[in-house]
Amino acid sequence: MSDAMEVAVIGGGVMGLATAWELTRRGLKPVVFERFARGHHQGASHGATRNFNNAYDEEHYLDLLVRAREGWDALGQADGEPLLRLHGLVTHGDVDIVAIGQRLIERGIHAEILTAGEASSRWSGMRFSDDVLFSRDAGVARASAALGEFERRIVTAGGEVRWETPVARIEETDEGVDIVLVEGRVRADVAVVTVGAWTERMLPGIRLPRLEVTEEFPAHFVPRAGSAWLSFNHYVDTDRYPATVYGMPTPGEGVKVGFHRAGEVVDPDARPHAVTHAHALADYVREWLPGLDPASAVPISCTYTSTDDSAFVLDRRGRIVVGAGFSGHGFKFAPGVGATLADLALDPSALAAVPFRLP
After folding, report:
1. Which residues of 113-127 are buried (b: 16+ CB within 10 A; e: fewer)?
2. For the chain, which ranges sit under pLDDT 50?
3. Which of 84, 177, 243, 322 fits a disulfide with 259 by CB distance 3.0 to 4.6 angstroms?
4. 256 contacts 219 by C-beta, under 8 angstroms
């Protein structure tokens, strides 16, 4: 072996970087292997913003959300600005906002119910037909800035991020995990695999839940003058629209709006970049977001790697730890996911919450 390490992280998206950062906080010097170059757009972690959406009522997600928030707070700022912009979130439509609000309040997270009129008076760029749930403890994560800060912290602590270093395969042995590169091999005591859309190809020997890779096309829209913006979830009539709608302000680019998990199934190595549901998205903006110009859409391509029930995979088999299936709603949880995967890497007896375990 030309190299040896305690923990290798395969995949340098947000989940891999968050895991490596957490490992450095525990005194280790992990090495991250990433197939693509820094700043690439081939996976699911690129772009300026991700919704920091806290509107969950399931205990395993709320536990992970609390842990993630602790991590985001510890990560702090980048370029003099917090990595979380807590400008608030509204959730409305066909969803039990009372139950979600109660769960958040039980966790010490702000939540309040507003009438449609109250919400409209605060956020005139949006239209509401029923009561809404508002939480000021939500907003957006600065995605690209977070990736840079994770890497900076990893390297400062003595870890490494090896960009443009594809891993051909991994082989578990009695002595460790052999990581087969284009040139040579390295060995780790434990390998954490966070390769998103390429999970099944990297782990053919592990029984995984079904993972569906889709190409999604949210878009940035130009806001009209005078409208204040925050993040939002809208559980729409799916007879009219393809899926739930989410959105958030992205300074300098507009307001990002998208259908959640409505894209076509694709091969991650041959994405067609054929924009889907553009007319439906413009129609939604025209009907529900009068503060945006529906003709101004600038589509963004990204991938989802989704389980059938949208539950994450956070588990360990032998010397291999798996983080996968983030189903288009994982980014905000990244520090919590990283802490959980670090637990699994360092303690073979550790377990994530039941819904996150491998079959």
Report:
1. ebeeeebbeebebbb
2. 1
3. 243
4. yes
